[in-house]
Design brief:
The protein is of the alpha/beta class. It has 14 helices and 17 strands.
Length: 390
Amino acid sequence: MSSLLVTNVGELVTNDPERDGLLGVLVNAALVVEGGTLAWVGPAADAPAADEHVDAAGRAVLPGFVDSHSHLVFAGDRAPEFAARMAGTPYAAGGIRTTVAATRQATDEQLTAHVARHVAEMRRQGTTTVEIKSGYGLTVLDEARSLAVARQFTEETTFLGAHVVPAEYAGDPAGYVSLVTGPMLEAAAPHARWVDVFCETGAFDADQARAVLAAGEAQGLRGRLHANQLGPGPGVRLAAELGLTAVDHCTYLEDADVDALRDSGTVATLLPGVEFSTRQPYPDARGLLDAGVRVALATDCNPGSSYTSSVPLCIALAVREMGMTPAEAVHAATAVGAQALDRDDVGVLAPGKRADFLMLDAPSHVHLAYRPGVPLVVGAWLAGRAAVAI
């Protein structure tokens, strides 16, 4: 079993709660990888020998980004919809049906190639763990094959049959919920870890969401929700009531929503790429953090409301538009992103953890917000293997 030493790290973000500060930063540091996990982390001067050696030359090293919310299994393009929004047309969830039509027509090979391209794009930007949802098939066959495609790239797959009611069920939403909670769930469950619902006006109400989540749980799937994206609603409080691991969007919150998140411990996953693309108000990350809510950041990479695969962009937006400090934003995109997936093996650089990390062509994590739009990631490792070569 070969070992790898990464040394001369100017700033090492560990997120290790055993170390001082939110990010557990070490300067003039090193780490050693053995067998895909971290064997040692500490001062470069004390580092043990290893079979292979990477000189960071004073650059910053961080845990790999954990993108806990994406929709990568799709076909087609919605650039005209984006252009219309930029010309003043309000965003509405109905555009999802455009992608559904294209996705149903795509072959498995086309969908797989599409996901592979986007995952590679994410890797180049430092993402080492990604969650991928279905939700653009909305038939038994298409939801199951979407998840089978996604499972080729990640274990963090989410069944989102309850994304919108497809056109063929427009007059019978109850019938569609029965399909989702019955044959569709049965076909999708073998390929999924999570079940999700878009709990929003124009999509699914709280009772429908509760039914889908309960059916998913009966099949062994963990629950999560899209909620409070387009306006105030019951979704966030439902997530807290059910003790879900995470609830995503959280754009329009009332005081009771914030209290429920704090008291339940449910992670609020914020998706600033959506607000950038739709011109909706940004979520109040500062208020959530000050209230004691755990906040994660993710891309929501999808063809309609947030066609970005860049966690660094989301970090920069969170700092500039949502009141987060650079340290809070990096922590949200790594350690808390892992918590949103109920993972304790990623998002932290400490002995025994998975050796997923990235290197910046910069001396500090602050540069992710300080230099927005600049491709700073020069190396990324998954389980100690180079995914982006320095």
